[in-house]
Design brief:
The chain is an alpha/beta fold. It has two domains: 4-117 and 268-345, D-Maltodextrin-Binding Protein, domain 2; 120-266, Periplasmic binding protein-like II (D-Maltodextrin-Binding Protein, domain 2), CATH 3.40.190. It is 33% helix and 23% strand. The protein has helices at residues 4-7, 34-48, 62-70, 81-89, 98-106, 150-163, 181-186, 204-208, 220-224, 226-232, 280-292, 294-298, 314-317, 328-336, and strands at residues 13-14, 17-18, 23-27, 53-57, 76-80, 109-116, 120-126, 141-143, 166-167, 170-174, 192-197, 213-216, 237-243, 254-257, 262-275. α2 (34-48) crosses α11 and α11 runs parallel beside α14 (328-336). The longest helix has 15 residues, at 34-48. The chain starts with a helix and ends in a 13-residue tail after the last helix.
Length: 349
């Protein structure tokens, strides 16, 4: 595999192309999500512009993928911003690294562009389970993400803030790789799921084919409570609030449960991350290619516009809160395209 650090000196820009085209790796998590869309789009436009050949691999646990980018074992990853923050503190899935090693590795991470990785986290259950509220997961087994992944931490936190219950203390969480998540829902191994998804979610048609589904909003009083609002502003999170009518495309097979016609949830802020030592010219070219082709990206999936590709406002994307900074090449690409980058999101080195 040709690593980007091996070709930095040999790389020159000439009419938008490189004298030597590197081969890069790019990992994402669940199929049909924001990371899937962004990684495949980047691979397509990078190839078309002869910037790089990008080998895309899905179904990954991003906790591991982010660490591998920090260690220069993978070139690009779909990166939940919360994972960079947790790594820098040696917390959660990175507690085994310790604070010192975690901080050192996190300092290697840089962003090309941000986006929402998911429209929201959803509580879903088949209607015949009787689960039509968050409190009714008590005593049930639910899928809440892959083992040790960022989605697992978020799912557990949402349930705790909404119901007061913890995994193993009120309900039983089942963790499994993304590729098997729909299968265990279909065969009854779990009675519900708290999982991230777009709108429409790529996995929903498969589940709908087996029966009617309840999709449950977080109750307004819980969502607006100080503790939940604090959580919504935590690193890697963003508030999801939109009319229930935006789920109308699912038809009668999905019942959206909300007390006031508004769906409330939590979105996860993401970005495509690289190592800080990626050559500046390469990082800039990849970012520019992505920015230039966002209109084409929006046409590739019905949920694409809702994931805020092309948005750099830190209030919506939360880079500074998660202490994530752009790659210097990406900063140049965004600013040349007319976007403002917050000073706190610019790298010091």
């Amino acid at each position: 595999m040709k690593r980007f650090m091996m070709i930095g000196a040999a790389m020159v820009v000439a009419s938008g192309a490189y004298a030597q085209t590197p081969t890069l790796t790019h990992e994402f998590a669940q199929a049909g999500g924001g990371g899937d869309l962004s990684s495949k789009h980047l691979a397509e436009v990078a190839s078309a512009r002869k910037i790089a050949t990008i080998q895309v691999q899905g179904g990954k646990t991003l906790t591991r993928s982010v660490q591998q980018v920090a260690q220069r074992k993978t070139d690009i990853t779909s990166m939940p911003l919360v994972l960079s923050f947790l790594m820098s503190k040696g917390l959660g899935p990175y507690s085994g690294l310790g604070k010192e090693k975690g901080a050192k590795l996190a300092a290697n991470l840089r962003l090309l562009y941000p986006y929402w990785g998911t429209t929201s986290f959803y509580l879903i259950a088949y209607a015949n389970t009787g689960i039509d509220s968050w409190d009714k997961i008590r005593g049930k087994t639910i899928f809440n993400g892959p083992p040790r992944g960022g989605a697992l931490n978020t799912s557990r936190a949402i349930v705790r803030l909404t119901t007061g219950m913890g995994d193993g203390k009120g309900y039983t969480g089942k963790q499994i790789a993304w590729g098997q998540a729909s299968a265990i829902f279909l065969d009854g191994s779990v009675e519900a799921a708290v999982r991230p998804g777009t709108n429409p979610a790529s996995w929903m048609p498969v589940l709908m084919a087996a029966g009617k589904i309840n999709l449950v909003s977080i109750p307004k009083a819980k969502w607006e409570a100080p503790a939940f609002q604090k959580f919504l502003s935590a690193p890697g999170n963003a508030p999801a609030l939109f009319p229930v009518s935006e789920f109308a495309h699912y038809g009668d097979n999905v019942r959206v449960i909300s007390e006031d016609g508004m769906f409330r949830g939590v979105s996860a802020t993401f970005g495509d991350g690289v190592h800080k030592d990626m050559p500046k010219a390469l990082a800039k070219a990849l970012t520019k290619a992505f920015i230039d082709t966002i209109p084409e990206l929006h046409k590739k999936a019905p949920f694409a516009k809702g994931l805020l590709f092309g948005e750099t406002d830190d209030k919506r994307m939360g880079l500074c809160n998660a202490k994530v900074t752009y790659h210097p090449g990406a900063v140049e690409a965004w600013e040349e395209a007319g976007h403002k980058i917050a000073d706190c999101a610019k790298p010091k080195s």
